């Protein structure tokens, strides 16, 4: 053709790499050509010829090259098929188009009208053009974003178009031939010459006359602009380079470097400047240094976090540095977190690509934000996602923004609209829940967790041997599963060699059963017949554990962070500590630090662990090659099995002397160790010292492998069970047993889907998806739960467990457990998702009586989620009290409401963990302290015990005092008692008495107590008048004493007012706190402020008010100025309110020096900064324990020697103690232990209360050994006489070694001490 080409477009998809297709348009025809250099051909010729009155204008390929769009000089447009070159459809628009633009794909196209507006058409499934929307305002230019979002039935596009004065950025939602167009951003930039997107649709480029403007498509902000000296004629974008612009009249082109990386820095700067500008902190033109700092802020934050994290992971540091904490706080306050956490996305995208490297910051941001909202009583955002309560709206398409009003530089935004139900909305409204109400909710779940268990209270059934207390306190033997109510808090149960471990849903571990070799982790080898928490693990959330089912017993536990602890018998190095020593308390395996362990297994004499990244470590006895390390050598430290380094291991199981492991995908199983009975599954009985794959199990999808004594069990993902090894343990009747050296399907379970299975030493229990339980194997102790003790070769159904809703099972050496807690509920510090719904509110929670249980549950879910967030970020939260008047630099944790709603474990875990890690091990007592209690002719006056001990202790190195029992050893001068613990306890009790008897001037009774009015009349304050250097040193020792009480878990019997504990917890005081200790003072200053309402005038003021200057009496009654120079400032009618304000501030801060000294002393022993997670009440409870002696607690920790609980002396004793007043019980405690208080938690009782019978004369006085918490009872002829003797002893016989037995013994034997210190 000799006609001019008016439009030429290359096909976006080329059929071959060296072959290009193009479409060319002349006024009368459309051609398709092929360019394969050096030849250009038009093989197809004319594929469309214009009509008589038609003049062709433009051709456009669709994005996938499926269609061609042809516009004409008329309002007629044509849709053609690019493959068949046929015209599919023609559509006449209301006006002739001047330009057509395809949206990404082949669904939508926009036509810009010649005179007015634009038309949006869709291609229907019938391949026809259909007009679906018209833009009525004049459209100058338009552009589609290259990024789209799609769901099952909706596609979302971004369309930007310009008018004469503005640019509108819109979302276009396309659904079934219908669209909705919503304006998101309106950009006031004038007439535009060109519009296009760069940086994956994140940046909109607007070319004006001589200015190039770049706008963010996340929020519509202008991120950069550049003005040239002349008109811009053309701009081209090149990836990895930026913009190439040609300027009118110029011979050269200009290059502007730009990239996605630069855009990400710009968005940080803009967000930071905007936030600071709104706060009025920076001017409109911020300094260059600030811009540079914000530009580099993300890199600085990331590098600092990566630098410090290894030190935190290795537990070298308790918290992150104040510098990083400040950076994180600044990041949140500048609203930068979303920019780092989520990858940049255009406003219309519903895809949230979270960066896992910044997840830590996201959790911190949420924790800090919710803390601020709670502290200020503002409602939580409707978009807050609380697992189990609300849906996650983070993937919702952004809702339309409010268009800018006149004068705004950037549009305002609103959150996506979320409609909450009434219950959830109230749960989010912090003004609807008072501090006391929230506190009571948290107390309810803490005191009665079984009320809130999902699916109701957990029901636990156990059978088998119970001689050591491993299946319940009162059951020695059970042939069928018996219901055990004391195990109702179970989330996981692990059974071993005559012992049982229970893990609650909060990750607390309890133990019971045989305690030999320290296998229960209690610090001793005593048996436990009641569940007792393992105190050494109380600072951690345990998610998984294992215990051996034979040999001498050892255990291993994994925390939520992948830390590993082991304890029990240490022969062969099976504890992994580099030696063969026994560990009676859990000890972290240092060699595994830096590895995130997810699964563990204890064999009889060896141990295996699996890490999150699929590595297998083995240690312990190496005989038979059971460690898989190609040798039979013992390994006392974890050593990786290198022959499996090319595979990701998912699970390991250790048996008597062989090991099984399975790949993470379940397609490969390996075995190694002793091969007797064919238990390796390799077709023979030969042993293997290196992992050898069991070919018969390849590719079947293994879920669980279990190694028993002389047999192995495999459970597949399809629910099938395979066994191999000793024939009597295979679950196969003898008539069906074939080759035991290879895996074979258990026929009796072939038609069942087994979902869980466990092996004991020589028995197996299995659970089906229908809740039915099966067992087989040895049954000498009734561990199969079938009513007899005969062994069973084939599978037997435990019918008694039908309809019990069993969800989990466990097997020990000779006992079994079955329980109803859902398996998917992993133990964690708190959980907002694992909450059931109680039937009613118990009467003791009176503030909750008028609230529906559903509303309480919803609020508890919110508070639990908040606790989860704080727990995940506590190392980053700022501990500085914060006193700035600028709200955003204050610490929200300094709000008592915020602290009071934290779950108790969340508030305590960090401190308990830090205490555990800094505990001095291997020593039973600290430095020796000498004490004179007896006056002599040479020394008639004896200093108070508090003074004597404080003068010596404050000179000691604090690390020497961080012991789990006695921080120092007392040497009583002139007395015979040797301190094995009882003297230490007794002297501390005496020091507490000296403080409250005001022998030492550190305490003063509250003004309410002195005036006999108001609250806390029996409480004490720190003496504000004790300000001398000696007093400050004594306050320092008081703090040390409190820290020692926390470490040793032996409470102090002191009665400080709540205001003191509030300040020790670094919480601010309020008027109510002062009123609770001095109500007359508050009444006085209120009356003074409002004295004018009583008719007092300036003239009569001095006659009515006796105070003349700015000074008042402090809480101890001493007159002091309330401000510097206050004694010279006259009090007048006019300045009375100023006086009242300063007087209140003075009383609130009158003991700050004393408080600081006490905190300094506490900080030297325990991590006092972490007290800022606690309320004052919680701190007092931790230091002082329970003021009342709990009889039930005493009965739980008692042990009997030479008699049992059915003995008549024991029965009489508990009847007598039951009649005691609390004062009598305190005296009893002082008599038998030297202490007058018990800890709050039974797990914190370091010694068991022992009651034993002695051979002393009948009806004599009882005696005690305070070092051992021991009461010795002679025989009594009646309960009445026993009560008389016991009452006399506890109230009158308080002297240690009163008969000088030890003094005489020490002199006679020239000995240096003995364990006998409590003979009365």
Question: What would you note in describing this structure?
Answer:
This protein is of the alpha+beta class. 23% of the residues lie in helices and 26% in strands. It has 27 helices and 63 strands. Helix 25 (1222-1233) packs across helix 26. The protein is globular. The termini are far apart.
What is the multimeric organization of the chains shown?
single chain
Mean pLDDT comes to: 87
Largest sheet: 5 strands, antiparallel
User: What structural category arises from helix and sheet content?
Assistant: alpha+beta
| Strand residues, percent | 25-35%
Unreliably modeled segments: 395-417, 882-889, 1298-1320
Shape annotation: globular
State the helical fraction.
10-25%
Number of beta strands: 63
Rg, Å, rounded = 40 Å
Tally of alpha and pi helices: 27
State the separation between the terminal residues, measured CA to CA. Answer: 125 Å
Give a quick rundown of the structure.
The protein has 27 helices and 63 strands. With 1320 residues, it is of the alpha+beta class.
Write the topology of this structure.
Elements: E1 7-10, E2 20-25, E3 29-36, E4 39-41, E5 46-49, E6 56-61, E7 67-72, E8 76-81, E9 87-92, E10 97-102, E11 108-113, E12 118-123, E13 129-135, E14 141-144, E15 149-150, E16 155-162, E17 166-175, E18 178-188, E19 194-198, E20 203-207, E21 211-216, E22 222-227, E23 232-238, E24 242-247, E25 253-257, H1 260-278, H2 288-295, H3 297-313, H4 322-333, H5 337-341, H6 359-375, H7 422-428, H8 435-447, E26 460-465, E27 477-483, E28 490-495, E29 499-504, E30 509-513, E31 528-533, E32 542-547, E33 554-559, E34 564-568, E35 583-588, E36 597-602, E37 606-611, E38 616-620, E39 635-640, E40 649-654, E41 658-663, E42 669-673, E43 688-693, E44 702-707, E45 711-716, E46 721-725, E47 744-745, E48 754-759, E49 763-768, E50 773-777, E51 792-797, E52 808-811, E53 815-819, H9 853-873, H10 896-900, H11 904-917, E54 928-931, H12 945-953, E55 969-972, H13 982-996, E56 1003-1005, H14 1007-1011, E57 1020-1022, H15 1029-1048, H16 1058-1064, H17 1071-1075, H18 1079-1089, H19 1101-1104, E58 1111-1113, E59 1119-1121, H20 1136-1148, H21 1152-1163, ...
Parallel strand pairs: 54-55, 60-61, 61-63
Antiparallel strand pairs: 1-2, 2-3, 3-4, 3-5, 6-7, 7-8, 8-9, 10-11, 11-12, 12-13, 14-16, 15-16, 16-17, 17-18, 19-20, 20-21, 21-22, 23-24, 24-25, 26-27, 26-53, 28-29, 29-30, 30-31, 32-33, 33-34, 34-35, 36-37, 37-38, 38-39, 40-41, 41-42, 42-43, 44-45, 45-46, 46-47, 48-49, 49-50, 50-51, 52-53, ...
Helix pairs in contact: 1-2, 6-9, 7-9, 12-15, 15-21, 16-22, 18-20, 25-26
């Amino acid at each position: 053709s000799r006609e001019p080409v008016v439009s030429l477009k290359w096909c976006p998809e080329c059929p071959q790499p060296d072959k290009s297709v193009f479409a060319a348009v002349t006024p009368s025809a459309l051609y398709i050509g092929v360019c394969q250099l050096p030849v250009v051909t038009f093989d197809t010729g004319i594929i469309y010829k214009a009509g008589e009155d038609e003049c062709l204008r433009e051709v456009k390929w669709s994005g996938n090259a499926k269609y061609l769009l042809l516009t004409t000089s008329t309002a007629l447009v044509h849709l053609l098929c690019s493959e068949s070159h046929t015209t599919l459809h023609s559509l006449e628009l209301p006006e002739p188009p001047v330009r057509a633009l395809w949206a990404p794909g082949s669904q939508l196209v926009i036509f810009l009208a010649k005179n007015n507006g634009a038309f949006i058409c869709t291609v229907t499934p019938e391949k026809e053009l259909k007009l679906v929307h018209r833009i009525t305002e004049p459209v100058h230019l338009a552009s589609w974003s290259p990024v789209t979002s799609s769901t099952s039935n909706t596609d979302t596009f971004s369309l930007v178009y310009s008018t004469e004065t503005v640019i509108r950025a819109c979302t276009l939602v396309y659904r079934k031939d219908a669209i909705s167009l919503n304006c998101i951003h309106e950009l006031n930039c004038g007439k535009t010459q060109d519009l296009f997107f760069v940086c994956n649709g994140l940046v909109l480029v607007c070319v004006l006359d001589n200015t190039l403007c770049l706008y963010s498509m996340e929020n519509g902000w202008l991120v950069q602009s550049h003005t040239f000296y002349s008109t811009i004629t053309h701009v081209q974008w090149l990836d990895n380079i930026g913009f190439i612009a040609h300027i009118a009249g110029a011979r050269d082109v200009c290059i502007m470097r730009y990239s996605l990386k630069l855009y990400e820095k710009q968005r940080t700067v803009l967000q930071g400047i905007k936030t600071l500008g709104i706060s009025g902190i920076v001017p409109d033109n911020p300094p260059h240094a600030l811009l540079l700092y914000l530009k580099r802020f993300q890199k600085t934050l990331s590098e600092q976090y990566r630098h410090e994290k290894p030190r935190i992971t290795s537990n070298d540091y308790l918290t992150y540095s104040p510098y990083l904490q400040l950076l994180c706080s600044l990041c949140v306050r500048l609203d930068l977190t979303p920019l780092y956490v989520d990858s940049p996305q255009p406003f219309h995208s519903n895809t949230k690509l979270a960066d896992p490297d910044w997840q830590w910051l996201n959790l911190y941001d949420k924790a800090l934000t919710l803390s601020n909202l709670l502290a200020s009583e503002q409602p939580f955002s409707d978009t807050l996602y609380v697992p189990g309560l609300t849906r996650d709206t983070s993937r919702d398409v952004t809702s339309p923004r409010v268009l800018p009003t006149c004068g705004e530089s950037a549009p305002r935004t609103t959150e996506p609209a979320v409609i909450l139900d009434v219950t959830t909305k109230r749960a989010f409204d912090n003004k609807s829940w008072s501090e006391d109400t929230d506190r009571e909710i948290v107390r309810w779940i803490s005191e009665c967790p079984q009320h809130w268990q999902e699916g109701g209270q957990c029901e636990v059934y156990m059978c088998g041997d119970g001689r050591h207390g491993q299946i319940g306190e009162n059951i020695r033997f059970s042939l069928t599963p018996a219901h055990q109510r004391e195990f109702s808090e179970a989330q996981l149960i692990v059974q071993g060699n005559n012992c049982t471990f229970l893990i609650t849903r909060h990750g607390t571990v309890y133990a019971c059963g045989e305690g030999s070799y320290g296998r229960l982790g209690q610090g001793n080898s005593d048996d436990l017949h009641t569940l007792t928490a393992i105190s050494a693990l109380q600072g951690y959330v345990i998610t998984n554990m294992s215990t051996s089912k034979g040999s001498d017993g050892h255990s291993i536990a994994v925390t939520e962070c992948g830390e590993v602890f082991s304890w029990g018998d240490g022969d062969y190095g099976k504890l992994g500590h580099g030696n063969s020593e026994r560990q009676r308390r859990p000890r972290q395996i240092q060699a595994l630090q830096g590895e995130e362990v997810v699964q563990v297994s204890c064999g009889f004499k060896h141990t295996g662990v699996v890490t999150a990244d699929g590595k297998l470590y083995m240690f312990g006895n190496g005989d038979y090659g059971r460690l898989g390390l190609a040798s039979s050598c013992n390994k006392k430290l974890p050593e990786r099995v290198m022959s499996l380094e090319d595979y990701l291991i998912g699970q390991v199981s250790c048996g008597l002397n062989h090991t099984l492991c399975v790949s993470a995908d379940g397609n490969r199983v390996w075995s190694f160790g002793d091969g007797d009975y064919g238990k390796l599954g390799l077709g023979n009985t030969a042993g293997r010292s290196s992992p050898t794959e069991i070919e018969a199990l390849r590719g079947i999808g293994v879920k669980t492998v279990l190694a028993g004594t002389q047999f192995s069990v495999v459970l597949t993902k399809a629910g099938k069970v395979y066994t191999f090894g000793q024939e009597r343990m295979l679950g196969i009747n003898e008539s069906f047993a074939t080759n035991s050296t290879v895996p074979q399907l258990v026929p009796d379970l072939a038609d069942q889907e087994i979902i869980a299975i466990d092996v004991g030493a020589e028995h197996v229990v299995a659970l089906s998806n229908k809740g039915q339980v099966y067992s087989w194997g040895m049954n000498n102790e009734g561990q199969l739960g079938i009513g007899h003790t005969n062994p069973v070769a084939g599978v037997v159904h435990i019918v008694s467990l039908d309809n019990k809703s069993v969800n989990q099972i466990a097997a020990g050496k000779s006992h079994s457990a079955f329980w109803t807690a859902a398996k998917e509920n992993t133990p964690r510090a708190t959980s907002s998702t694992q909450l059931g719904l109680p039937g009613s509110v118990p009467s003791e929670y009176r503030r909750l009586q008028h609230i529906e249980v559903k509303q309480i549950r919803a609020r508890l879910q919110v508070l639990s989620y908040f606790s989860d967030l704080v727990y995940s970020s506590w190392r980053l939260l700022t501990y500085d009290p914060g006193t700035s008047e600028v709200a955003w630099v204050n610490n929200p944790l300094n709000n008592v409401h915020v602290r009071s709603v934290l779950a108790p474990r969340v508030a305590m875990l960090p401190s308990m963990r830090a205490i555990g890690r800094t505990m001095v091990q291997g020593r039973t007592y600290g430095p020796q302290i000498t004490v004179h209690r007896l006056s002599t002719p040479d020394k008639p006056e004896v200093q108070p015990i508090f003074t004597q001990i404080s003068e010596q202790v404050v000179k000691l190195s604090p690390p020497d005092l961080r012991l789990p029992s006695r921080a120092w050893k007392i040497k009583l001068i002139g007395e015979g008692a040797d301190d094995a613990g009882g003297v230490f306890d007794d002297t501390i009790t005496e020091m507490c008495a000296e403080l409250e008897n005001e022998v030492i001037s550190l305490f003063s009774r509250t003004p309410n107590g002195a005036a006999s009015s108001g609250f806390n009349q029996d409480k004490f304050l720190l003496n504000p008048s004790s300000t001398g250097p000696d007093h400050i040193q004594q306050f320092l020792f008081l703090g040390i004493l409190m820290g020692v009480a926390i470490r040793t878990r032996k409470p102090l019997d002191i009665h400080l007012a709540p205001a003191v504990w509030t300040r020790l917890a670094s919480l601010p005081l309020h008027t109510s706190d002062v009123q609770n200790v001095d109500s007359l003072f508050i009444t006085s200053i209120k009356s003074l402020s409002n004295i004018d309402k009583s008719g007092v005038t300036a003239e009569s003021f001095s006659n009515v008010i006796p105070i003349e200057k700015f000074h008042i009496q402090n809480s101890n009654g001493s007159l002091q100025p309330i401000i510097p120079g206050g004694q010279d400032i006259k009090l007048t009618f006019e300045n009375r309110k100023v006086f009242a304000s300063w007087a209140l501030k003075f009383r609130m801060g009158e003991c700050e020096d004393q408080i600081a000294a006490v905190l300094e002393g506490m900080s030297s022993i325990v991590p006092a900064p972490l007290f800022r997670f606690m309320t004052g009440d919680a701190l007092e409870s931790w230091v002082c324990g329970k003021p009342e002696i709990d009889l039930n607690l005493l009965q739980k920790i008692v042990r009997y020697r030479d008699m049992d609980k059915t003995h008549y002396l024991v029965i009489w004793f508990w009847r007598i103690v039951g009649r005691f007043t609390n004062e009598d019980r305190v005296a009893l405690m002082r008599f038998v232990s030297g202490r007058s208080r018990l800890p709050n938690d039974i797990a914190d009782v370091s010694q068991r209360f022992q009651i034993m019978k002695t051979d002393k004369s009948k009806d004599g006085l009882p005696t005690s050994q305070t070092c051992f918490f021991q009461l010795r009872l002679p025989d009594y002829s009646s309960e009445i006489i026993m009560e008389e003797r016991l009452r006399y002893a506890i109230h009158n016989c308080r002297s240690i070694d009163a008969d000088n037995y030890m003094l005489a013994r020490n002199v006679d034997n020239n000995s240096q001490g003995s364990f006998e210190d409590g003979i009365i």
